């Protein structure tokens, strides 16, 4: 498993643990929207919890609502934002 795949699995595990989701990591596709009826169905309270968890676990600070919206579209988006923040 490469670093990106490992990171995506860690993100899925964080989602499940922090938000008490009923899914397993295998049931969450990398491209599944985190918010909305077509995705995991997270809401604004979940967004706040997720923002705190992502900062704590991965060191990703989301500076504003627009940055958070962009980064929290899917597991793929979160992984890309975390990797970008680690680079520099």
From TrEMBL:
Residues 2-86 form the Carrier domain. Coiled coil: none annotated. It comes from the Bacteria. This is Acyl carrier protein. The lineage of its organism: Bacteria, Pseudomonadati, Verrucomicrobiota, Verrucomicrobiia, Verrucomicrobiales.
